[in-house]
């Protein structure tokens, strides 16, 4: 109870003024929670405003074209969240008459909603006593209670969920959950936490035992995979180019890109032009090839680094599936390609 009281007191004095804290409507809460997964509030907030303006209700989002949703999401990353967001909106609108499930168990059945998101919505919207456990909560609890069980292990996930549930203020789970997450985000930060003014500095075992930098413990990440991308940027007659939509379960599913030739290492022109994927992309056309960037752009994702070069392909023969350069900015593309377009077509971004 001491932890709950101190947290609530701190929260009421220090909480940020955020739009989704002014409502208990599940649509807005759900939208904010999906957007802020693995995303800082500072980065996600402008996107939240854009989505709420474009789609004021779950019906508006459900009726939106998939490409439009992905375009609005562009730059936020983790695009599977956007696809799941859209699919869930269509399900809620058509199958549930626009009403979100009003319980933790019901919310878990929605696509893209896991334990954390279901707990957040259920507690904030319906005051159901279910504890949230996100990165901020892991950090706060591991430090205060001196827990060194890895937070990304099966045992750690169970241990921290159980502890959070025991500490939860059952009478006001909404405030408690928001308070502990906000405390982790603003006060008990990963680097340079404010231990001197911490309301728990008399109880924090990590502070007492000089283990602040050690906790929480996390198992080592999967080895980073290196991939080598060669994008073929066609320059056709009438200011047209070629775009393809990514499919499958890999990165950026549903987004658009230039024809791609992936290689096992950085390759030179003479190595690139003899590859089957390259030959298939140019369809035996008469072309001129020019390397746009000698130094590859390194785009870092969570488990892979993409070493990317853009090759300019001048051709008068290829017209199939061509796209006007004027329309190219209407397509949802990965940030990697958006940054290239910003440099390649600077006038279009003015």
Automatic annotation (TrEMBL):
Q: Which GO terms describe its biological process?
A: base-excision repair; mismatch repair
Does Iron-sulfur show up as a keyword for this record?
Answer: yes
Database matches in SUPFAM superfamilies: DNA-glycosylase, Nudix
* SMART domains assigned to the protein according to its UniProt record, in alphabetical order: ENDO3c, FES
Entry GO MF terms: 4 iron, 4 sulfur cluster binding; 8-oxo-7,8-dihydroguanine DNA N-glycosylase activity; adenine/guanine mispair binding; metal ion binding; oxidized purine DNA binding; purine-specific mismatch base pair DNA N-glycosylase activity
Give the EC number: 3.2.2.31
InterPro entries named among the record's database cross-references: A/G_AdeGlyc_MutY (IPR005760), DNA_glycosylase (IPR011257), Endonuclease3_FeS-loop_motif (IPR003651), Endouclease-III_FeS-bd_BS (IPR004035), HhH-GPD_domain (IPR003265), HhH_base_excis_C (IPR023170), HhH_motif (IPR000445), MIG/MutY (IPR044298)
| Signal peptide residues on this chain, from the entry's feature table | none
Q: Catalytic activity, per the record?
A: Hydrolyzes free adenine bases from 7,8-dihydro-8-oxoguanine:adenine mismatched double-stranded DNA, leaving an apurinic site
Checking Pfam families in the record gives: HHH (PF00633), HhH-GPD (PF00730), NUDIX_4 (PF14815)
User: What keywords are annotated for this sequence in UniProt?
Assistant: 4Fe-4S, DNA damage, DNA repair, Glycosidase, Hydrolase, Iron, Iron-sulfur, Metal-binding
Q: Does the keyword Endoplasmic reticulum apply?
A: no
Q: How is the cofactor bound?
A: Binds 1 [4Fe-4S] cluster.
Which intervals hold domain HhH-GPD?
A: 35-186
What does this protein need as cofactor?
[4Fe-4S] cluster
Q: Which family does it belong to?
A: Belongs to the Nth/MutY family.
What does the UniProt function comment say about this protein? Adenine glycosylase active on G-A mispairs. MutY also corrects error-prone DNA synthesis past GO lesions which are due to the oxidatively damaged form of guanine: 7,8-dihydro-8-oxoguanine (8-oxo-dGTP).
Instruction: List the protein's name.
Output: Adenine DNA glycosylase
